[in-house]
Write a structure and sequence with these properties.
By secondary structure, the protein is mainly alpha-helical. It has helices spanning 10-30, 33-47, 54-70, 76-108, 112-136, 141-169, 173-183, 187-197, 199-213, 216-226, 238-252, 257-280, 284-289, 292-315. Helix 7 (173-183) runs parallel beside helix 9 and helix 8 packs across helix 12 (257-280). The longest helix has 33 residues, at 76-108. The protein starts with 9 loop residues before the first helix and ends with a helix. Residues 1-6 have low confidence and may be disordered.
């Protein structure tokens, strides 16, 4: 168990797996991303499974598979059209978010590397950016854990609240997809929130989030120079490369409708189960790891990003 307690006995382990199967089946039946991550969190907080538990290890992989399969429903010409409209805006937003976080981190007295990790996660792609940049700048494990914990919690809030706000404001699917692509940290959470609104929102969100994720390459180079650290390779997320390849494949090869429908269903299933598994990562230790100053910094940045990104989307 977490915190050094004894592992669960065979009976308790079987019971936990039975509950897991029931909850995953419920998530797939209802098909709601926010419900998936909430049920995962409740499962983790109530049963307190060990860090080696299956859901804590396969969640990111399932989400990545789901995102790659999503690429098979996106046409490259549509993706380029969407990207050409919003890419300059996304680039400006990434840079503004990153350097604003760095500045406010200094003002609030948050540690240099801790601030840099939170800036990377807030501006680019959440946990993925934090993990890659954390390795690049040789951050301490506890610094990475704190940053990841904050991002996990904010992503949970985002998946629940953004669809509610978007519906209340009457945003179109394209507007909502653009908004979440700018304002939510992790790719998985962006896609999860957009999937609640509709397929078009999901396509737009995934395409535009790719534009943010590409900034991980210059950020790794910049961080290596800034902290004077050497690193072999850029550590670019491989699933993003496969996602791009899937878009290209779908654009130049005619996939039969029945296979296309099957792949779309599989993509949604992987995303839903993956989000449930991500929810199980938000356990008692994660909550304990969150400190006031870094959390306050992230909340300030988010309170600026959310309305400003929404305003930009509505104006455009």
């Amino acid at each position: 168990m977490v915190g050094g307690s004894s592992p669960p006995g065979p009976t308790n382990l079987i019971m936990s797996y039975l509950i897991l199967i029931v909850l995953v089946g419920l998530v797939l039946l209802l098909g709601h991303a926010a419900l998936g991550i909430i049920l995962g969190m409740i499962y983790s907080l109530v049963l307190n499974p060990p860090q080696s538990y299956i859901t804590k290890n396969i969640g990111p992989k399932l989400l990545q598979v789901g995102i790659v399969l999503l690429g098979l429903s996106i046409n490259i010409y549509s993706a380029l059209e969407i990207s050409s409209t919003y890419l300059p805006l996304i680039s400006a937003f990434v840079l503004a978010s990153f350097f604003l976080t760095i500045y406010l981190g200094k003002v609030l007295g948050v540690g240099k590397k801790q601030t840099f990790l939170l800036a990377s996660g807030s501006a680019i792609c959440g946990g993925t950016a934090i993990a890659i940049i954390g390795t690049t700048i040789k951050a301490k494990p506890e610094e990475i854990t704190k940053a990841l914990s904050i991002v996990f919690l904010l992503n949970l809030v985002a998946i629940v609240l953004f669809p509610i706000i978007g519906t209340m404001l009457g945003l179109t699917q394209e507007q909502f997809g653009s908004w979440v692509a700018l304002a939510i940290h992790d790719t998985s959470s962006v896609v999860g929130a957009a999937s609640i609104i509709g397929d078009k929102a999901t396509e737009v969100a995934a395409t535009l989030k790719l534009g943010r994720t590409l900034w991980i390459v210059p950020l790794v180079i910049f961080s290596s120079l800034y902290f004077k650290e050497k690193r072999n390779g850029l550590g670019f997320p491989m699933f993003i490369i496969f996602f791009i390849l899937a878009i290209v494949l779908n654009s130049f090869i005619q996939i039969p409708p029945n296979i296309h429908e099957f792949l779309t269903t599989c993509s949604k299933a992987f995303l839903l189960i993956g989000l449930f598994c991500i929810g199980t990562q938000i356990d008692r230790e994660v909550i304990k790891a969150v400190l006031i100053k870094p959390l306050f910094l992230s909340l300030i940045i988010w309170s600026i990003i959310i309305p400003s990104s929404l305003g930009i989307i509505l104006v455009n």
